[in-house]
Specification:
The chain is mostly helical. The protein has three helices and no strands.
Length: about 80
């Protein structure tokens, strides 16, 4: 069996850390700008993962957001 020259786990970890760091200044970054990917199928797949991540993030924060909105509504009632 032939082994890859790079460790896929290390690549995945590096890409995740890059995505989460949010300090990318590269306009051609395929992680932050999947629209720059030239191959149509790869671009669509990347965009699907990008949107899936955004939806997952919103869902993960739903409980916090609902609680924050309830607290804000209570504070508004007390003021008004």
């Amino acid at each position: 069996m032939r082994r890859a020259k790079t460790n896929n786990t290390a690549v995945a970890k590096r890409n995740l850390n890059h995505a989460l760091a949010n300090v990318c200044q590269d306009p051609d970054c395929e992680i932050h700008h999947p629209s720059v990917i030239e191959d149509s199928a790869e671009r669509r797949t990347a965009m699907a993962w990008y949107f899936a991540g955004a939806v997952a993030a919103l869902e993960a924060n739903k409980i916090h957001n609902d609680k924050a909105l309830a607290n804000l509504a209570e504070a508004i009632k007390e003021v008004g």
